[in-house]
Every structure is written in structure tokens, then in C-alpha cells.
Amino acid sequence: MKLLKALFLPAALLASLPVGPLRADEPRPAKPGAGPTVSPKPAPPVVPGQVPLAATQIKDVPDDALPYVYTKWKNFTTKDGLPNDHIFSVKAEGPKVWIGTEDGLACLDKRTGKIRSWKEKDGLPFQAVTAIDVDRNTGDVWLGLFGGGLARFSGGRFDHFNQLNSGLVNDVVYGVAIEGDSVWAATTAGCSRYNTKTHEWTIFNEKNAPMEEIWNYSVSHDKGKVYLGVWGSGCLEYDLQTKHWKEYLDPDGEMEIDLYRDDGIVHVIVTGATHVDGALWISSYFGNCRYDGRNWRGFYSHETGIPSDFTNAVRGRSAAEGWYGTDKGVGVVADFFTDTYVAYTRDPQSLKGLAKVYRRGKLLKTVEMETGVPHNFIINFDIDGKDVWVATGKGLGWAIGDDYFPGVKTPDGKPFRAAGNAVANAAKSESPAKP
């Protein structure tokens, strides 16, 4: 049944995405048909102004200490040369930005603003490009194809890997990550690892990994470990040296409710996981969370200002900052240590960009922009130095941070130093404890 489901999924995905003009706030499911239907998981009640017990790192901060807000945006659509407006993936590497769409691959040159694209008629093995990573050693661009397997773009040529000609476990690929000489591919039937030097394939599924479900949504790596986001199996961490797996699950074992707050991941349907500076950022369809090796912290929309709990992707920028892509806009944990958030949306009436700054559920500031995120359905991100690229259901957004700064600053421009930041530094030198 799982194989049959995977075979029909590409058509379901393509049929479900926006076609033609859309309202800015019109939602679309990013990953339809992915597993059985699960009732929404009610978030734990929160007393206004109360800091969750597990969030002992969070310190008091004056309301006028605010984070950086992206107010300079550029948007790209088919009018600018993209092959399609439905953006599944984006990867910035130097002056080039690689863009995966529903119908083709594109490359934007940030220096000139020119866009070049490739479709199936140009040699692209399959039209829907759902994942991209770049091998910095060779310059090769690796593509995850939604029903077409895996492709390598090198020297102007596409090499194609699928279930019939390689060790790829499934042709529906959601995520790709380059780790040394290896390419990892997250698929709907497990995860495959390809060694580009030895040409050896390794498959990870329920037979050799703790996967109760084998539907892999994402793959990433950091400092000798690989992280998988798995439907129904939470977040899995693979130690490249010991070859051992560690599971990150919700210890209360309840699928429908979050029985105990901050005891583990908020839900086992994990859509993304990214590790940076000792912090593991995790996204799910029922809320989001962060783990520093000692403490868990859940993030729910009603207490943070993040636009929605239905989250398609996450990118960690540091131990203090994480970006979540939801079905109703971008939610940024702008500074974990001061409990500060920024929500970026597009107003459905005026079509202008909006940024709202929150702290502990309290709205501190609203910024209106002529141009903001191109659509409220967020599918993916990439952090590009001071800038951020946002893949949406109706175009690509480029958030330009010329004067970006981390954390929060007071009105006189001085950084506010939360004492909790010391925890981030300590996490870098400690091995994460078992959750």
C-alpha cells in the first residue's frame, strides 16, 4: 500500500497546488496524501505572560529591545524568468541561487539578476524539483525529483538515478543533503545514501533504522551526524562514526494531544530538522520545537505569534534563531533567549507585506511594507549569509538583510545581552544528552 501511495503521490501534489491567479492568503497543502489523517493535536494551555517551566534559559527583556526585521524584499515569478511559480526548493551557493519548481529547474545570478532555466526538453529527468543541494568540492548540483528519483547536474549534463538503475530506495524524493563524499536522499520509502567515490549505495528503512513509518520528509547533517524528519517516527539522528541511531520522540506517546509540555518533540509527524550551534530545530504539522541537548522548548502559534502550527519546513540560523515555514506565513524565532518572534505575511486585501514582532505572545510592533513575502504558503527556505530565500506556493522571495544583526537591540542600537546566551555557548562543547 505504501508503494502504491507513493506512485500516485506526484499527481496528487501537482493537482493540489495553485493554478492561475490566487489570493495571497489562499492555503495549499504542500504534501498531500502523506500518511493517514491525524486529528490536530491541541496545544497545552498557556497563561498570558507566563514562561513555560522548561524554558528557564529565557530572560526578561524590555519591550523596546527589538530584533532585526526584514523590510527589503524582492520577489521572482514566471514574469521574471522562472519556469514556474510553484517553488518547492531553493539553494544559494555563492553568487548563484538554484531554484526547484513544479515544472523545471532555474538558476538566478545575484550579480546580474538573470535567470536561466531547464525543463524536461532541456534534459532535466523529471519536471518537479523538490530538493536541491550543492557539492562544494565539485560544484555538482544534486536534485531531488518528486517521482523522478535523483539527478546530478554537472558540467551542463544531467545524470539520472532511479529505482531501476541505482540503489535509490524510491523515486519520490523530498530531501537531499551532501555529506562529505556522500549524497543522502529522503524518500517515501526510507533514506538512501550514495557514495560518489565508491559508487556504493546504502538504504535505511524499517529493517535497519528505528522507523515505525518510512515516509522521510527531510534530511540534513551537521558535525558528524545526519538528521531525518520522518512521518510518524519523529526525528532520527544518525552518528556517522558509531553508525548508531538516536530517536527523538514525544515521550507521552499520545498522537492526539501534547500531554506534557516540553518533554520532547511536539509531534511525531516531523517535516524538517536542522542542527546548528548545538541546537536542534524541528518542524511538524502540529507545532514546532527546539532542543539544546538538555532542554526542549515547544513553539505554538497561539503563544508565539508564529502564523500557524502547520509547518512545512525549518531552517536554523544559529542556536538563537530559527525560521519556520507555515501554511499561513513565515514564523521566525528571532531570539530564543529573549522569547522574541517575527511573523512575515502578505495581507490578502492590500497584498502588501506585513511583519509583526512578538514577545511572549504580546504584539510589540507591526511593520507594513510595499513588498514582502510573495505568498503566505511557505514551502522551503535557505539562509544566505545576511539574506534569506523563501520558496512559496506563488513565487520566490528574497529577504535582503544589508544591516542584519542577530539577537535584539535597544533603541540606541546597543545589543541586549540576555544571560541565557551562555547556554548556547555551553551547548557547543557538550555532547547532547539522550532525550
Supply database-style keywords.
435 residues, 3 helices
Record the SSE blueprint.
Blueprint: H1 2-16, E1 66-67, E2 73-76, E3 87-93, E4 96-101, E5 104-109, E6 115-118, E7 129-134, E8 141-145, E9 149-154, E10 157-161, E11 173-179, E12 182-187, E13 190-195, E14 201-204, E15 216-222, E16 225-230, E17 234-239, E18 245-248, E19 270-276, E20 279-284, E21 287-291, E22 296-299, H2 301-304, E23 311-316, E24 322-326, E25 329-335, E26 340-346, E27 353-359, E28 362-369, E29 378-384, E30 387-392, E31 395-399, E32 408-409, H3 421-428
Antiparallel strand pairs: 1-32, 2-31, 3-4, 4-5, 5-6, 7-8, 8-9, 9-10, 11-12, 12-13, 13-14, 15-16, 16-17, 17-18, 19-20, 20-21, 21-22, 23-24, 24-25, 25-26, 26-27, 27-28, 29-30, 30-31
